């Protein structure tokens, strides 16, 4: 049998997706069923426990294929957007409703029960969350479920940013969170994924997968805005010829710092730059 990356393959020793029958060995194979994330952000964990490591987060409106739900309220499945596999709280999922038409383009926005900013918000949605808009009421977008969002914070699903570095810069100061991908906390690869996704560029979740999939090799002596610097387990975005933008555990935040300082500090911890990738210009 061929080897598959467990992060991206819905297969365990006891259970696997039916589409993998004959490709992986499992005790049984099952058909998945579609679900939609209804929480602003739902944790995807490596094990069905609130104490298990956070692998990534799924945002409101994302689709996921679920293959198992256990008695403790955890659902095991695969995200449609980037293929990541793990355990999600089952109460944060529902049968897919109206197809999302718009996405959140601000770092965060509020959902109101009525067309008034003076009402108490029902929830706050992060950049990239998806909603189905039924109509517009003045300055508000009204969802299919009858909730109200500031229209200025939304854009049609097929609208894309043009400068992913500028998107990433908006997260400066956000706290570092392993597995996170919102302004409440995100990690290095989450920052890259969110910024590229906002520009309509498909991007894997983890830095090693990003290093394999994104761009072409570039010269370290000629850094350009948008180049990606990779280390083992880390990635940063070149902001200009002198500065690097990245979420990192040293600062416990998304920061901009001199490229030379970042390279020297990470070298002192035992890691050298493994590659520099340049994305094609859009």
What report would you give on this structure?
By secondary structure, the protein is mainly β. Helix content is 12%, strand content 35%. It contains 4 helices and 25 strands. The protein has helices spanning 164-169, 188-198, 207-213, 259-268, and strands spanning 16-17, 29-30, 33-37, 41-45, 54-59, 63-69, 74-79, 85-89, 93-94, 102-104, 108-111, 123-126, 130-131, 133-137, 140-143, 148-150, 154-156, 181-182, 185-186, 216-217, 228-231, 234-238, 243-248, 253-258, 275-278. The strands form 8 sheets. The protein has a 6-stranded antiparallel beta sheet with strand order 20-25-21-22-23-24. A 5-stranded antiparallel beta sheet has the order 8-7-6-3-9, with no helix packed on it. A hairpin with a 4-residue loop joins strand 23 and strand 24 (253-258). It is globular and about 55 Å long. The two termini are 39 Å apart. The model has no long low-confidence stretch (mean pLDDT 96).
Summarize the structure.
With 282 residues, the protein is mainly beta.
Overall outline: globular
* Terminus-to-terminus distance: 39 Å
Low-confidence stretches: none
The proportion of residues forming helix, as a percent range, comes to 10-25%
How many DSSP helices? 4
Portion of residues in beta strands equals 35-45%
Number of strands: 25
